[in-house]
Amino acid sequence: MIFKQNLSKQDKQAVIVLTISFILTFLIIMASGHYSIFLTPFRLSGFEEGKVAPGDLIADHNYSYIDTEASQMKIDDELSSVFPIFEMENEKTKTIISNFTLFTQQYLLYTDTADLNLKSEIKSQYSNLYSNEEINFLLDDVDPYIVIPKASDLIEEVLLKGVIEKTDKLIYKDLSKIQLWHWERGRRNFTIVDSDNLVTLQTLGNWIDSRLLLTKMSDSEKSAVKLIVSVFVKENVFFNEVQTQLRYDEIRKEIEPVMEQIKPGDYIIKQGFVVTPKDMVKALTMNKKDKSINFIQISAGFLFLILLYTFAILMFKPLFHGKKRKYQYIYLLLAFYFVFIIYTSIIIQFNFTVNYSVSLFLPTALFSMMIVILIGFEESILSVIILSVSQLLFPGATISGFIFSFVTGTSAAFLMKGVVKRIDLVRPAVFLAIINIIVLLFGFPKIFDINWLLMVILYAAMNAFISSILNLTLIPVFEHFLNIPTVFRLMELSDMNAPLFRKMVSMAPGTYGHSMAVANLADAACRDIGANPLLARVGAYYHDIGKLDQPEYFIENQTEANKHDMLNPSLSVAVIKSHVKVGVEKAKEMGLPFEVIEIISQHHGSGLIGYFYIEAINKEGNKKNIEPGDYSYTGIPPESKEAAVVMLADTVEAASRVLKKPTISKLEKFIWKLIMEKIERGQMSNTSLTMNDMLVIKKSFVNILSGYFHTRIEYPKIKRKAV
Q1: Low-confidence ranges of the chain (pLDDT < 50)
Q2: Are residues 94 and 17 part of one domain?
Q3: What's CA 621's distance to the chain center, in Å?
Q4: What is the pLDDT of residues 399-438, one digit of tens each?
Q5: Last residue of a domain, one of 247, 278, 310
Q6: Domain presence at residue 89
Q7: What pLDDT, on a 0 to 100 scale, did the predictor assign at position 410?
Q8: Among 199, 336, 421, 644, which residue carries the largest CB count within 10 Å?
Q9: Shortest CA distance to 500 belongs to which of 641, 419, 596?
């Protein structure tokens, strides 16, 4: 019940149309062959690996298979960039430092005491590390108070850096970096270390030499330091095979296998050629296709289409919010989409699309151009996205094809943006053809031969030119059928040589001049606030066409006596009010777009006709007997920005005629007062204009009117004396 209460009759109709559209689209996609119910498996009798094929084996449907060789190469390439994990063992480091500290204590004690028994004890204890000659050298030939501090610094530095284990367990040998794990304050940290900075037992000697190179120690002292460090330093960083293997396994799971696509018409095996293992994989993959319904593919397509429709509804809803033609635009877009789906399902059935991308033959650019002209630029870009994504539901579609459709569609939209003449619909064809060819060359690297390339370029250029020609042909049809105020329709309506305006010039010249002035004001203001300036200009041209029946009753056309002087205020008001109704009737007879008729009917809103209201009060002598509603226009306040601007321009232009010696400051105050009166009387309540917009409109009006009222410089007169 809540659902029914919240939806209007038009909303319910739109929901029904959307539902029918969704069902039909899904059925068409299934019927196109991508979700075919009957799948005939290939018979591989006679086809054997390593033997000559007895005949041709051609795909009749879209299939895909895993290229195991390419997949393994992809895995190896990814794993080769994974850093092996090495872990620093702190206990090993502590043991090394402890052994060195013990040796240092004994060494310095012997130096201080020269105890021969201690010397013998040191030789005995470290005989497995040093020879007698090396022990004698350390104990008798060098100063330990110079050697030991330096050796201690180097041992601490190299252990902190890490002495890495040299292992043959690495899968990939040509590594430039490793991942080093180490513990710090109870937490495991890791750093990425370059192989050039790694120290092993084999490179330890060179590392020590590099550190001692610039020291001021003697050669014997350097030799002693190197001897001590080389003996006590051991490996403290070891390859963590388990963690590295886990990382490799994790990467393998993340890597998608390389899928090869088999398209309808592709040769799987050619007669007379030797059948390769890869050929058999493709053939066996096709042979495994079941005759039963593929519910997974059907469900995936159904879900994909639901998401696409949901996306479209959510994105178009704010664009159509508040638009009077909302439902007309919805049905038009659905019609375009339905035609696109049917056309795509037909075009993929032709064999000439087998070796070319389906997107080359799709009218994405055509629909993009038409939507820009008929509805709007943002709606066109969004439609291009939906059309480009939709083609992925069909067999033969690829990501490259999606990119081609998206680029050609968006390019067409940008080329159509801002066109003002019908000839401009054809001129962008050359640019669109060039864009199509460039995208094609970059997006489709799989070039079979030069003939294929030339045909593809021809199809891309034809797509652009045919789309432009059809756009030029179809736009007038839709303009007439839907009466949409396109830029071309509005430009035609703004032709001042039309019979209506020639009649206005002769019968109501004041109204004509007033309409031109209002059009200039409305055009400038709409440009400044981001509304449609051309629609406002055309609306202003036609807003007073109802005065043509009785032009002499309107002050701007009166050259002699005022005819209202002989009428009661109530009758005068009836004549004045009637020009709106008559104008609307004339506009409908002329077949003007709804948006222009709306401006005509709303340019006075429900405003009070103040002059005759005051006249009636003065004659009656009792304000209570006079109803303001009887002296007000019967229309509704403006509902669009353009109608609101025309109302303000109409009021300001008419009222400004009584100003004497206007200055810019006077104009600003005067115009703002008129605008605020319209706001206070509720004439702006139906529009989305903000106070900031009102300030912009005021500024625009002031700029235009200050130019109108600008007087020429008066030339000075020559004085008599000078003569």
Answers
A1: 1-5, 34-43, 290-292, 351-355, 447, 711-716, 722-723
A2: no
A3: 67
A4: 878 888 899 999 999 988 878 777 777 778 888 888 888 8
A5: 247
A6: yes
A7: 93
A8: 644
A9: 596
Q: Which of 599, 611, 595 lies closest to 635 in space, CA to CA?
A: 599
- The reply to whether 469 and 564 lie within a common domain is no
Contact 440, 457 (CB under 8 A): yes
43 close to 235: Cβ distance less than 8 angstroms: no
> 259 by DSSP, 3-state: which?
strand
The answer to whether residues 518 and 572 belong to one domain is yes
Give Cα separations from 157 to 193, 202, 212, 221, 673 (angstroms).
15, 17, 13, 19, 83
CATH number of the domain residue 682 falls in: 1.10.3210
The reply to whether 268 falls in a domain is no
Q: Confirm if 164 and 237 have CB atoms less than 8 A apart.
A: yes
State whether 27 and 94 are in the same domain.
Answer: no
User: Can you give the residue range of the structural domain that contains 173?
Assistant: 85-247
Name the pTM for this structure: 0.59
Residues sharing a CB contact under 8 Å with residue 613, sequence separation 6 or more, in sequence order: 569, 573, 626, 628, 631
| Residues 602 and 656 both lie in one domain | yes
Decide if 532 is inside a domain. yes
**Token pair listed for 703:** 């700029």
E strand spans, 479-555? none
Handedness of CA 109, 115, 121, 125 (dihedral sign): positive
Distance CA 452, CA 447 (A): 7
215 in Cβ contact with 150 (< 8 Å): yes
* The two three-digit tokens of residue 361, written as one number: 């033959």
Give pLDDT, residue 46: 64
Q: Give the bridge partners for 177, in sequence order.
A: 194
Spell out the residues 6+ positions from residue 366 whose beta carbon is closer than 8 angstroms to its own.
412, 466, 467, 470, 471
Nearest to 162 by CA among 218, 222, 207, 221: 207
Position 288 in a domain: no
Q: How far is Cα 183 from Cα 89, in angstroms, rounded to an integer?
A: 8
Q: What is the rounded end-to-end Cα distance, in angstroms, of the chain?
A: 96
Euclidean distance between CA atoms 408 and 27, whole angstroms = 28
pLDDT of residue 368: 93
Q: What angle in degrees, to the nearest 10, is found between the helix axes of 610-620 and 569-590?
A: 150
Of the three residues 247, 263, 280, the one that is the final residue of a domain is 247
Q: Check whether residue 239 and residue 374 sit in a common domain.
A: no
In this structure, the answer to whether residues 388 and 452 fall within a common structural domain is yes
* Nearest-angstrom CA–CA distance, 537 and 522: 6
Report the domain count for the chain.
Answer: 3
Query: What is the enclosing helix (H) or strand (E) of 155?
Result: helix 144-161
DSSP notation for 149-217:
HHHHHHHHHHHHH-BBPP-S--S----SEEEEEEEETTEEEEEEEEGGG-B-TTTHHHHHHHHHTT---
For the record, the structure tokens of 532 come out as 């449609």
Exposure string over 527-540, b if 16+ CB within 10 A, otherwise e: ebbebbbbbbbbbb
Calculate the dihedral angle through the C-alpha atoms of 241, 245, 248, 252, rounding to the nearest 10 degrees. Answer: 170
CB-based contacts of 312, cutoff 8 Å, min separation 6: 382, 386
Which tens digit of pLDDT belongs to each residue from 577-592? 888 888 889 988 988 9
